[in-house]
Known about the structure:
Elements: H1 8-11, H2 19-32, H3 38-43, H4 48-52, H5 59-76, H6 80-97
Amino acid sequence: MNTQPAAAGIRAMHPHDLSSVRQILVNYLVEWTGGPQRYSTERGHPRLRRKHLAFPIGAAERDAWMDCMRQALQEVVTDAALRQQLEQAFFKTADFIRNDQGNHHEHHHS
């Protein structure tokens, strides 16, 4: 986010010091990929859409975030097939979080 001009908008939505956000994201991704449930233990059900409602997120913000994630994946995931799977899953989630239109509904799992 710090190095890509297109990400300046979403970078501004994050705190100046990214270390706390980074740790939350790490915990979330560990759990999301089947690892220990550190995120839920500390922060409860993700409810990603609700947590992002304070920020205007449209296609441009989604794409800027995806560019950052894509770059990160290229740096750390050597397996191309795995990288593509993760990219598709990230895109699905990022698109779900968009709140620039009224036709998205948050699904509650009991």
